[in-house]
Amino acid sequence: MSGHLRPLLTAVGGSLGGERLRLVLRAYEVADRWHSGRFRRDGSPYITHPVAVAVIVAEMDLDHELVCAALLHDVLTDTACTEEALAAEFGEPITNLLRGMRMLDSVERRPPEWPVSTDERVLTLKLADRLHNQRTISGLPEARQRVNSQENLDVVAPVARRLGLTEVEEELRRLAMANLSGLGGARTLFGAITAGASMLPAAARPRWLEEWLGELLTLPGGRARLRFALWLLAGMPRMALTLRRQAALTRGGRAAVRDRRTAPAGRAAAAGRAATRCLRWVVRSDLRTWALLAPLLGWLVLDAAAERVTDAVVIVITVPPVLAAAVHAIRARIGDGDGRG
């Protein structure tokens, strides 16, 4: 048996046996024969794609018909194989799934129209196909990557959520956002925004990251993107506090919040006072302030230079004045700093 099939056999494990397993193996043989001599854009044999889609389906613990359809999903659309031949060998249920896939692949049925489909099994199959294509999207031209990733983010991932396929939805969103953030020189900045967003409640994080990524990619140049990222990062702690307070009120109601304003509130207040004293001690001295900020600035410059030297130059020119202004504002706010070391 070909080595390409091993990942699928591992995913299936002992869940399929007898006639069902034989049908899956036959579907692989048919797909391998029809895709023989074809290659993907990355140079790998084309059969690796339907096998990968079948693995995704098998990992969802779906039935053998969907696994067979995953293996055969491009045979009907991309080869000379006929519906009649497939129906004769694999039966109408599997062939109907393939017909549904072909309908979704037609020019007239782009992803925004997918939710109107009444066959959730076809949608599940298509989601597995889209997920593997997103995993291997680097072989496409950049413009096509942007279109497909945005489509997966805006339309395909919500379909996965509607079907209850949470893991598929999350991976699609993560991969699509990572791909989009890497286009147009915005990778470093979006990485910093994503790191800062770790302060936000987990439930709110994906929605805000999607919105910020969209805004970041629409900005005209590196300087505008940098200003936007710094503005977001500066406001992230306050936003995180606001969102967490709202979440607490939603979960427990105002009465529950009042009940917690005893010892925990006292400890929080003490911690806040200690943090303020520490901040005042740091910003009182230029030496201490820049000793704290210099490693962060150095990391930003080096990380940006790894992608584009011009981005690093922009950071060197624009970030120190912004940080200096922020330190000055903090000193004025806390009213305790003379700027001496």
TrEMBL record:
HD/PDEase domain boundaries: 42-143
GO terms under cellular component: plasma membrane
Pfam family name, one: HD_4
Protein name (database record): HD/PDEase domain-containing protein
UniProt source species: Nonomuraea thailandensis
Taxon lineage: Bacteria, Bacillati, Actinomycetota, Actinomycetes, Streptosporangiales
